Amino acid sequence: MAPKGKTSLRLETWSDQVRTILFRGLSGGLPFSFSHVTNGDRSLKVEDFTLSEYDLVMPDILSVQPK
């Protein structure tokens, strides 16, 4: 059996206000959700959400909304 690869979503955000962004979706029929909080000083914030850590694959559906 081949080793499992890493599947992740990378977010890169810039904002002049601290904001929470909600991510929801379906991956292989399984629901998932996570949140991302931006920096408030217009600096780059990078965050990786590693789906494969939770036995998820690339999402079939992904929704992005402010909280």
Task: Walk me through what this model shows.
By secondary structure, the chain is an all-beta fold. The protein has a domain at 8-50. Helix content is 0%, strand content 51%. The chain is built from no helices and five strands. It has strands at residues 8-13, 20-27, 30-37, 45-50, 61-66. The protein has a three-stranded antiparallel beta sheet with strand order 3-2-5, with no helix packed on it. Strands 1-4 form a two-stranded antiparallel sheet. The termini are far apart.
Mean pLDDT score: 89
- Quote the beta fraction: over 45%
Question: How does the overall form come out from the CA principal axes?
Answer: elongated
> Radius of gyration, rounded?
14 Å
Order of strands, main sheet, comes to 3-2-5
**Total strands:** 5
What is the ordering of alpha helices and beta strands?
EEEEE
Helix content: under 10%
Report the structural category.
mainly beta
Largest sheet: 3 strands, antiparallel
Count of helical segments? 0
Uncertain runs are: none
Q: Tell me the distance between the termini.
A: 41 Å
